[in-house]
TrEMBL record:
UniProt entry tagged with the keyword Cytoplasm: no
KW Ribonucleoprotein (keyword) present: no
Lineage: Bacteria, Bacillati, Bacillota, Bacilli, Lactobacillales
Protein known as: Glycosyl transferase family 2
TM stretches of this protein: 15-35, 307-330, 342-363, 375-401
Organism annotation: Ligilactobacillus aviarius
Length: 421
C-alpha cells in the first residue's frame, strides 16, 4: 500500500510542477509583452473615418449598477455620432426598465436603445440576450460590456483603433480591474487573480503563441465574424471562451491591448463567488468537450495550446490536487505511510516560493500593487484560494455531468451575480 501512496505523491507533484512551470513561462513572456507594450505608442484613431460601433450590454436585474455603467458608456472619448448603445434588459423584475427609460429621456440626442424582453423571448442567459441585441445592431464593429462595468473614457477608442490597424485581428480585448478590491480579503484575492491572469494567461500566450481568449467584457469584434458564425452559442455559459475558439478556427487573431481598461465589480462574499466561479467552470468544461476534437484538426493548430491547457487545468490538475490533499490528510492522520517525504517537501516548498514570486511579478505591472501586503495575500491565496477553487472545480464538474449527461436541469438561464452599491 505504501507504493500506492508514494505513487500518488509523485504523480500529483509531477502534474502540479509541470503546470507551475508552464505558468512561470507565461509570466516570463507576459512580462516581455508588457515591456514591449510600454515602449510602443498607443494606437491612433482617425475620428473622421472611425467605424460605427454598436455597444451591447446584456443585463438581468441590474438596477443597482446599470445607471453608472450606461453613463460611463455615454462618456466614451469616441465620436458620439459613430456609436450606439443597446442595453438588453433581459426579463428583469427589478427597477431596471424604469431607470433605463429615465436615462433615455435624459439623453434624447444619443444613439441609446433599450430592448426589454420577457420570459418568452428572454431570460435564457447571456448568449441569448446578445443574440437578441445583435438583431438590432447596425455597427460594423460590436463591443460588449457587462452591466457592472465602468470603462475608462479611452477604452473603446483604444480597442477600435487596434482593430483597425490589422485586418488579421478578428477581435481586440482590453484589461479589467477590480473596483471593489479593498472591501475584504476575498476581493483582494480576486484583484490579484485578475491582474496575474491577464499577464500570465493573456500577455504570455500572446507573446508565445499570438493567442488570446476573449473575456466576457471590454472587447470589440468584427460584425462579419458574428454573422458568419451565426451568433453566440446559447448553450455555452462561457460564451467568451467558446467564441474565441471559433474566431481562431476562421483564421483570425485576437489582440490584447492593456491600455483599454474597464473597472468591474467582483463578488464580496464566498457564496456569491462560489456560484459565479462554478458557472465559469461548467462553461469551460462545455467548451473543452465541444472542442477537444480540434486537437487533431490541422486548421485549428493555433488553439491546440489552449485546449491542452484547459484539459490539464480542469482534469489533470484537479486530479493531482485531490490526490495531494488526500495523501496529506491520510499521512497526517497515520492511515498512510509515505516514504518520499524529502522529495515531496522540498519540491512543495520550492513550488510555493516560485508561485509567490511569479504572481507578484505579474501584479507589479500595475501601479500601486507592488507592496509587501500583496505578498501576504498571495501566500494566503496559495493556502486558501487554491483549495476554494478545488471545491468549485468539483462542483462545476458535478453540475456539468448532471445537466449535460443526465439532463436533469437546464443550463440555459441567467445565473445572477449579486451586485453591491
Amino acid at each position: 500500500m505504501t507504493n500506492v501512496w508514494n505513487g500518488m505523491v509523485i504523480f500529483s507533484t509531477t502534474i502540479i510542477w509541470t503546470l507551475l512551470l508552464v505558468s512561470i513561462a507565461l509570466v516570463t513572456f507576459g512580462y516581455i509583452y508588457y515591456l514591449k507594450w510600454a515602449k510602443t505608442p498607443l494606437p491612433q484613431l482617425d475620428d473622421q473615418h472611425a467605424p460605427f460601433v454598436t455597444i451591447m450590454v446584456p443585463a438581468h436585474n441590474e438596477g443597482i449598477v446599470i445607471v453608472k455603467t450606461v453613463q460611463a458608456l455615454l462618456n466614451f472619448n469616441y465620436p458620439h455620432d459613430r456609436y450606439e448603445i443597446i442595453v438588453i434588459n433581459d426579463n428583469s423584475d427589478d427597477n431596471s426598465a424604469e431607470l433605463l427609460a429615465n436615462l433615455q429621456k435624459e439623453n434624447p440626442t444619443r444613439n441609446f436603445k433599450v430592448i426589454n424582453t420577457d420570459s418568452v423571448t428572454g431570460g435564457k442567459g447571456k448568449s441569448n440576450a446578445l443574440n437578441i441585441g445583435f438583431k438590432s445592431a447596425i455597427g460594423d464593429v460590436i463591443a460588449i460590456y457587462d452591466a457592472d462595468n465602468t470603462p475608462e473614457p479611452n477604452a473603446l477608442r483604444y480597442l477600435v483603433a487596434e482593430l483597425e490597424q490589422n485586418d488579421e485581428y478578428g477581435a481586440v480585448i482590453g484589461k479589467f480591474r477590480t473596483r471593489n478590491k479593498d472591501v475584504n480579503l476575498l476581493t483582494r484575492f480576486i484583484n490579484v487573480e485578475t491582474l496575474s491572469f491577464q499577464w500570465m494567461a493573456q500577455a504570455g500566450r500572446s507573446q508565445m503563441f499570438k493567442l488570446c481568449t476573449i473575456p466576457g467584457t471590454n472587447f470589440v469584434i468584427r460584425r462579419k465574424i458574428i454573422e458568419e458564425i451565426g451568433g453566440w452559442d446559447e448553450k455555452a455559459l462561457a460564451e467568451d471562451t467558446e467564441i474565441s475558439f471559433r474566431i481562431y478556427k476562421m483564421g483570425y487573431r485576437i489582440k490584447f491591448q492593456p491600455a483599454a481598461v474597464t473597472w468591474e465589480q467582483e463578488p464580496q462574499t464566498v457564496d456569491v463567488w462560489f456560484h459565479q466561479r462554478t458557472r465559469w467552470v461548467k462553461g469551460n468544461i462545455y467548451v473543452i468537450v465541444k472542442n477537444v476534437k480540434l486537437l487533431f484538426d490541422p486548421k485549428a493548430k493555433r488553439i491546440r495550446f489552449d485546449i491542452l491547457y484547459f484539459l490539464s487545468t480542469y482534469f489533470l490538475l484537479l486530479t493531482a490536487l485531490i490526490m495531494s490533499d488526500v495523501t496529506f490528510i491520510m499521512s497526517v492522520s497515520g492511515y498512510a505511510k509515505v516514504t518520499v517525504p524529502g522529495f515531496s517537501n522540498t519540491l512543495w516548498l520550492l513550488a510555493i516560493i516560485l508561485y509567490v514570486v511569479s504572481v507578484f511579478v505579474s501584479i507589479t505591472t500595475e501601479k500601486g500593487e507592488m507592496k509587501w501586503s500583496n505578498i501576504l495575500v498571495i501566500l494566503l491565496m496559495y493556502v486558501i484560494y487554491t483549495q476554494m477553487w478545488l471545491i468549485v472545480a468539483l462542483q462545476g464538474m458535478y453540475l456539468y455531468i448532471k445537466e449535460n449527461v443526465f439532463h436533469l436541469e437546464s443550463a440555459t438561464k441567467w445565473y445572477k451575480t449579486k451586485r453591491y452599491k
